[in-house]
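Database export, one record per block. Field names are fixed; values are copied verbatim from the stored entry.
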Amino acid sequence: MMTAFSIPVAAMELSGSATIQDGDTLRIGEQVIRLIGMDAPENGQDCERNGRSYNCGATAENKLRSILRDGVICTGDEFDDFGRLLAKCRAGDLDVSAEMVRSGWALAFRKYSTTYVSEEDAARSAHVGMWAGTFIPAWEFRAAKWEGNDAPDPACPIKGNISKRGRIYHTPWSRSYSRTKINTAKGERWFCNEGEALAAGWRAPFR
């Protein structure tokens, strides 16, 4: 989730192979990167096409993975309050955010930037990606999931799970959220926001 403020830093450039979290978040080495100017469906989000539901979040994630298959270069000069570098990334000659929006698997994140509005307009006109059916914007999906959680304390719905893969947190819009059970006797716990989970040593799931 994009947050309302960011922390300026000296310009950073990172390059190499990327691990993908979802359609707008990746990791190079140990640094998590949030693509700027766009917002992709969450990996637990479904859309509709031809009268059928499909996991558009997973499709967006796979689209990003295919764009980055030969590596990526990311440049940014701000961190959000979750420690993610807010960056513009390129894969060869492609602006990654532009390509995600142009292909219909992300929207221009107008709350923060109008950079990719023309790409969104083109995708809508061409009925490509999510525009081939119906969907709700990811920011509305996240808000609904956050409000509709069934955590013991509704204000703290993030699940801090411990497994053989380590300490991983799951937000209410995560693909694994509903099947993740929290056992506080094992040291698992609930968090009120992602920053709190990160500070306690948990990480987001990456694939």
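Remark 1: Residues 76 and 87 are 4 Å apart (CA to CA).
Remark 2: The first strand starts at residue 6 and ends at 16.
End of record.
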